[in-house]
Amino acid sequence: MADLADMRHELMGRVQAVMTACCDYRSAFDHYSYLYGEDRKEFFRQFLLYGHILTAAEIEAHAENGVPESPPTLQQFREQIDSYEKIYEEVNRIKPISIFQSWMKVVARPFKASLLNVIKWWSLVFKQHLMDHVMHSVTDAMFEPLKQTVELLKTYEQELPEEVYKQLEELPEKWNNIKKLAIAVKQHVAPLQANEMTVLRKSCAAFDVEQHRFRERFRKEAPFRFDTKKPYQLLDTKHIEIKQMESAMTSIYESAGLFEVMVPDYKQLKQRRKELCLLKELWDMISLVGACLDDWQTTKWVDINVENMDLECKKFAREIRNLDKEVRAWDAFSGLDSKVKNMLTALKAVAELQNPSIRERHWNQLMQVTGVRFVMDSDTTLADLLKLNLHNFEDEVRGIVDKAVPEMSMEKVLKELKMTWSTMEFQYEPHPRTNIPLLKSDEELIEILEDNQVQLQNLITSKYIAFFLEEVSIWQRKLSTMDSVISLWFEVQHTWSRLESIFIGSEDIRAQLPEDSKRFEGIDVDFKELAYEAQKTPNVVEATNKPGLSQQLEDIQSR
Fold it and tell me: Rounded distance, CA 422 to CA 414, Å?
């Protein structure tokens, strides 16, 4: 067995070593992950705009106005293509098969082929863009840069159609002729253009005034308030108005571009569009939360699952916090946030009230505190409880429950006490000479009596005794009377048993002590009557708490 254990240990060690080697081998390719993990289109889009990929610091630094554009130079294109060519040669040198620990073979051929293909695609993106640039820019005043681009493409074996080379030779002269013609036409239309520019500037100013007026109307009429009626109708109306203004703004921009007129940015209109989108998002959340909470309203009291509802409300709270910070100043947001928070607080109170110690009297106390009345029965729903505005009485609910829990313990003690003494009966045995029923000593009964008296004393000192004070006091009196009566009964019974054999059972003593004998005869008659009467009431509590019993025993004892 020891040899097998050693072999198993050695085998597991070798497997672990190979696993480690394979993991290290895999990790060696991690630095290529960006080639197949990054979005190629987004990477190239940023390269064309800024000449490189933006960092988080750049985006944050220009968050307000945006990062200024800086298109890449031809040299930057060369550097990018050369970097992919270098990576291609590096990956091409990867061994197709590797063996670890002489028995583990890893075949990298499929991965290598796929990675080489991905690298080629990256390189082709840049090359294709340069080719398209040459093909579609031959009419621009950039003939020399275009020639340089063509030469760069040749170095990467990317040939262009023959007509492109011909155009690069002929078009510079044609282009100069077109520019001269354009200058002449521009001088001819200059008066008309000046007039149109004046009209356009007036339109820009009028539109600027209109966007500010719209801002004021939007703030008054858009559904910013939580108590807004038919918010989606208002949103639709404002969307149509903004769309019409955006159409007018687009027309102004197009005209301004044609006549080279500077126009305002019209930030107010753009801000209203942003606010409209945020309002739509906010009211979607309000509708979702409202629908969910309304659905809960009809849940019967016995079916309320506080845990699930609480989880759902916390999910809503997280989604509300993730809304755009700009909406937090709006009344609609405050109303939604308060609604969810109040529901969370109310659910805590409902969970407290689901405590099994809660009785009808506690519900009455809660109604008195909240000032709202309702019937608590099997048909009671969550809506009935929410009418109590439990979120405003969290401390009061907790106080009622804190009191109900110890009260339930008291209730249990009193219930057990009642049950115990309802079945507790005296046991009797006949007197040897007279057959009079004499009370039997019962140590268990005495022990229970003493324990119950201690329990009642503990209850009476509790600060939560108020509701049970009267009942506890009654039981204290009953058990105290029982204790004293039993003790007194046994004393009287013991004395009677001893004297009966003297004054009743012996004629000589009766003759010698006639007065004492006559007095005992009265005691004997009274005791026998009590003994027979007690036997008719077997229950200990009822038998010992008969009116006047204690006084009768004291009278017999004193005689």
Answer: 12
Q: Residues 99, 105: contact at Cβ < 8 Å?
A: yes
> Look-up: residue for tokens 């004193």?
558
- First-to-final CA distance of the chain: 95
Q: Which of 488, 495, 470 is nearest to 534 (CA)?
A: 488
Residue 98 to residue 92: CA distance in whole angstroms? 15
DSSP 8-state secondary structure symbol assigned to residue 299: -
How far CA 121 is from CA of 71, 127, 296, 322, 447, in Å, comes to 22, 10, 55, 39, 95
Output phi, psi for 527, to 5 deg. -65, -45
C-alpha–C-alpha distance, residues 300 and 380, integer Å: 6
In contact, 485 and 542? CB cutoff 8 Å: no
Cα–Cα dist 11/498, whole Å: 95
Q: For residue 428, which phi and psi values (nearest 5 degrees)? A: -120, 155
Please give the DSSP secondary-structure letter assigned to residue 105. Answer: E
**Cβ atoms of 200 and 259 closer than 8 Å:** yes
SS (H, E, C) 37-99: HCCHHHHHHHHHHHCCCCCHHHHHHCCCCCCCCCCCCHHHHHHHHHHHHHHHHHHHCCCCEEE
Element (H, E) at 372: none
CA gap 393, 147 in Å, rounded: 82
* CA–CA dist 355, 405 (Å, integer): 8
Closest CA to 366 of 410, 405, 399: 399
CA dist 450 to 303, 445, 456, 545, Å?
44, 9, 10, 17
Percentage above 70 pLDDT, the chain: 86
pLDDT digit string (tens) for 139-159? 544 556 666 666 666 676 666
CA nearest neighbour of 559 among 523, 528, 508: 523
- Type and span of the H or E element at 268: helix 267-297
325 vs 450: CA distance, rounded Å = 69
CA distances from 229 to 319, 332, 519 (A): 23, 12, 99
pLDDT, tens digit, 9 for 90 and up, residues 51-70: 777 777 777 777 677 778 88
CA 228, CA 489: separation in Å to the nearest integer? 82
Q: Burial-class residue 254 by CB neighbours within 10 Å (0-12, 13-18, 19+).
A: exposed
Q: Give the separation between CA 557 and CA 495, rounded to whole angstroms.
A: 8
Lowest mean pLDDT among 33-37, 253-257, 365-369: 253-257
